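Note on ligand handling. Small-molecule inputs were canonicalized before submission; formal charges were left as drawn, and no protonation-state enumeration was performed. Where a ligand contained multiple stereocentres, the stereochemistry in the source SMILES was retained. For pyridoxal-5'-phosphate, this procedure yielded the string shown in the input block below.
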Amino acid sequence: MNTIEPSFETEAIRTQIEKTQFLEHSSPLYLTSSFVFEDAEDMRASFAEEKQRNIYARFTNPNTSEFVEKICKMEGAEEGYAFATGMSAVFSTFAALLNSGDHIVSSRSVFGSTHTLLTKFLPKWNIETSYFKVNEIEKIESLIQPNTKILYAESPTNPAVDILDLEALGEIAKKHQLLLVIDNCFATPYLQNPIKFGADLVIHSATKLIDGQGRVLGGVVAGKKDLIREIYLFSRNTGPAMSPFNAWVLSKSLETLAVRVDKHCENAIRVAKFLEQHNNVNSVKYPFLKSHPQYKIAKKQMKLGGNIVAFQIKGGVKAGKSFLNAIKMCSLSANLGDTRTIVTHPASTTHSKLSESDRLEVGITDGLVRVSVGLENVDDIINDLKQALG
Ligand SMILES: *Cc1c(COP(=O)(O)O)cnc(C)c1O
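Structure output:
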């Protein structure tokens, strides 16, 4: 059982950078591109990293440091680094840790841009990837090559809400001395801590439930100190750092992460149970529904089921599109993890360029609808879905 430290909520609220002489209660926003030095010796020692201090905001800033410190405490990580977006966190991790000729073994069900990075861009630097399907983790070992360096996965997956067994992935990574990198975006640090199951690095798109209010973009990587050091050096010299403003917003967001995510999950399971008994719905996938194929694994590694519910509408692409057109309150949007409930139909939108067989590989059938359940009154969410289902 994945037990959450009792101090999770307290750490999220009470972790704070040093106060200024004004003794402000809430951390101020530090909008400054650089920091000054006392004298030549102070400057030399700072650049030599003999002291830990802020030099230039492309490297570190008090607001990004506060955000990262909270994430590390929440994930049980040694160190971390914050990025402008989730994708810059993913890219910087690969770029910092891999050499030309290295190989990745990745789950096939990864975020769309991560897939594009693995298939279109990393091969330019002679970094190839082999894929396993979410229900075939026993095949991973046959994909490992002498040059394999990273094992990469997300759980729960987008948009099919499949669950991968993190403990099993941790064991494979350890046995073959691979770095296990987990994109923990859908679970948030509140619901799941991959480091406990053997992950070396955890990545978040902070844009989703961490912000939780659809305002700012952000990303973060947390994990082993020596790996974060390389990722930091890459970022420090290439410039994808998180802006102080976004860090200030996101650090505040973390203070309410636990209460928000609790409520998201409470609403989501109500929505899942409503959909499960509806005549125009073929099947529903939600990690904490007993009917979920990986229900036991979800229960083992997650505190609650998350806020994403996937269901199969009867009637395929046509029915999916009519459903979206009939929606009155919920938003049709590309984001997820917002206070506002969002519905999407991947086969006619985000994944319409894939062939049907490629879509099926990642669990996207023609009738799949994804609901990112928000924080509105759950009866209003259910009533909107009900009237749109007909
Ligand atoms: C959104 C998302 C990302 C990318 O994050 P951005 O902040 O949009 O760059 C990566 N992984 C997952 C699972 C996501 O949902």
